[in-house]
Structure to design on (118 residues):
């Protein structure tokens, strides 16, 4: 599990990327394709065309951290109906995505707050 500071934003790039790209190539994609700063407090997620591999990149104090996951069976699940270049997700949705769940279909149980106990 990735332990990020709570203030970190998590972005999913909505265009498939060549998985041969490493830190430098992904940093350039963040700058040129997504118009973002790779040193912001954000984690960027990239996937390949067949959706069985993802790479995550973020800046940690004095260097980049690159996380790579390959599913041996199945594909990462997220809707093809998402539009734009970037889609912001929560830290919980990141965990679901990396576990192979369709994070858009999942939702946390809403908090119950009873006012009367009659």
């Amino acid at each position: 599990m990735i332990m990020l500071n709570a203030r970190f934003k998590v972005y999913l790039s909505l265009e498939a990327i060549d998985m041969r790209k490493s830190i430098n190539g992904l940093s350039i994609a963040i700058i040129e394709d997504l118009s973002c700063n790779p040193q912001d407090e954000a984690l960027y997620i990239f996937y390949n065309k067949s959706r069985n591999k993802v790479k995550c990149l973020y800046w940690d104090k004095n260097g980049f951290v690159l996380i790579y996951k390959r599913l041996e069976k199945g594909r990462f699940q997220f809707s093809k109906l998402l539009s734009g270049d970037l889609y912001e997700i929560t830290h919980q949705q990141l965990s679901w995505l990396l576990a192979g769940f369709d994070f858009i279909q999942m939702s946390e149980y809403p908090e119950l707050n009873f006012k009367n106990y009659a």
The longest strand covers residues 53-60. Residues 23-32 form the longest helix (10 residues).
